């Protein structure tokens, strides 16, 4: 689904990502850990093609196509979607209208999902205007559901979300990424950024990576990596980082 080779990215004069390699197969979901400022959001915004991020080296392939220089809307058309860490407010645009524009589903399906998310009352409201952090996350999940992309990136879908809604969001992400299907029937792939392991209790993820100072310091089994971070912080990852650097 997604293949990244030797990716180096700059924001302005600052080199944020240094030689990133990543391979996400069809049906696979990967998790990205890492301290604040490591470059996690930069990586997924670069994959999506946000022009603020300058690819100075390397390539990104999506569904076998080199998309490194492809504009964002074409990547979206190819089946890429994102749930933002801090989605912007869009005054004057009702959530309902936005959903209608981006949707690849029937309206009654979206209404049903809004009900599951306990979000019906928000459909008539302007997108993210006055939404709390947790409400904005549910709004993002609903938009992703409506768009129904094949590859979905979630930037901290659990931050600012209360315990009950973390379980709900975790379960929904799992479903959006085909994890309720048997492995041979899975067609979706995902990349999830999270600081807290709690949401992983409700999701089936295949592989984890730790991004440290713009380098993938280590990769492995999600539970092993998470246990390590809980026990040692990012100390062990720093050792790996020093070796790779
Ligand atoms: P993370 O998501 O891992 O917390 P980010 O990808 O948001 O980290 O940021 C990586 C680094 O890039 C940080 O040092 C951050 O300050 C810097 N950065 C992000 N956006 C900009 C910007 N628009 N201008 C300058 N530096 C930026
Ligand atoms: Mg952060
Ligand atoms: Mg971030």
TrEMBL record:
Residues 2-238 form the ABC transporter domain. It comes from the Archaea. Keywords: ATP-binding, Nucleotide-binding. InterPro entries: AAA+_ATPase, ABC_transporter-like_ATP-bd, FeS-cluster_ATPase_SufC, P-loop_NTPase. It comes from Methanothermococcus okinawensis (strain DSM 14208 / JCM 11175 / IH1). One of its GO terms (molecular function) is ATP binding. The keyword ATP-binding applies. This is ABC transporter related protein. PROSITE patterns: ABC_TRANSPORTER_2.
């Amino acid at each position: 689904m997604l293949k990244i080779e030797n990716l180096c990215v700059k924001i302005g004069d600052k080199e944020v990502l240094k030689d990133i390699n990543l391979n996400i197969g069809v049906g696979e979901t990967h998790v990205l850990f890492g301290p604040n400022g490591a470059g996690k959001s930069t990586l997924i915004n670069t994959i999506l093609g946000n022009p603020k991020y300058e690819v100075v080296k390397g390539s990104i392939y999506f569904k076998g196509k080199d998309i490194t220089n492809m504009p964002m809307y074409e990547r979206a058309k190819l089946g890429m979607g994102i749930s933002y860490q801090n989605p912007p407010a869009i005054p004057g645009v009702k959530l309902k209208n936005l959903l209608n524009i981006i949707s690849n589903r029937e309206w009654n399906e979206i209404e049903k999902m809004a009900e599951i998310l306990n979000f019906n009352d928000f459909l008539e409201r302007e997108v993210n205007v006055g939404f709390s952090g947790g409400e904005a996350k549910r709004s993002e999940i609903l938009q992703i559901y409506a768009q129904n992309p094949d590859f979905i990136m979630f930037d901290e879908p659990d931050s600012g979300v209360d315990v009950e809604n973390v379980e709900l969001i975790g379960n929904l992400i799992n479903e959006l990424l085909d994890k309720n299907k048997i492995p041979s029937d899975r067609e979706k792939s995902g990349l999830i950024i999270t600081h807290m392991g709690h949401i992983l209790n409700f999701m089936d993820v295949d592989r984890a990576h730790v991004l440290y100072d713009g380098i993938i310091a280590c990769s492995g089994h999600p539970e092993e990596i998470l246990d390590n971070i809980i026990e040692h912080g990012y100390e062990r990852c720093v050792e790996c980082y020093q070796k790779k650097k």
